[in-house]
Amino acid sequence: MRDGTPVSRGRQRSAVVTRGDRSAALLLSSWQRQFRLSLRAGRSTMLAGPAPDLVTAAAPARLWLGGARPGEVAARWPFLGSVALAEARERGDRRETMWLHLSENHYADPLSLS
Questions:
Q1: For burial by CB atoms within 10 Å, which of 33, 81, 82, 106 has the most?
Q2: According to the lineage, what is the superkingdom (predicted)?
Q3: Residue 77 · residue 56 · CB < 8 Å
Q4: Residues 28-41 pLDDT 10s
């Protein structure tokens, strides 16, 4: 797969751009106009979240591919998660990462507490 080449995954469309060991993947939902941005370092997802539109998704992807640290990107675009979550992922702290991911709910998924 070449950089920026659209890829079909079933009914979803995606594009991936890489620079060195970093990549930015944008997935378009087939059910609604919704975008999911995933920023990776090697095989690890450092930041991910639902982007409200393409323009908003492009800015953090550009910063990430330019070499910014995860906390810096998260501070500017909260839809990717908190700075604390980004820093826990960067440190490789799996326990804190999981706790923050579950407790923050930055995807705005409805939670059932019953």
A1: 81
A2: Bacteria
A3: yes
A4: 877 777 789 999 99
Whole-angstrom distance, CA of residue 74 vs CA of residue 30: 26
Q: What is the pTM of this model?
A: 0.77
d(CA 24, CA 21): 10
DSSP conformation class of 77 = -
- The closest alpha carbon to 71, from 82, 63, 56, belongs to 82
Q: What sign does the dihedral 23-89-76-50 (CA atoms) show?
A: positive
Beta strands 35-41; 44-51: pairing state? antiparallel
- The neighbour count for residue 102, using CB atoms within 10 Å, is 9
Torsion angles phi and psi, residue 25, rounded to 5: -120, 135
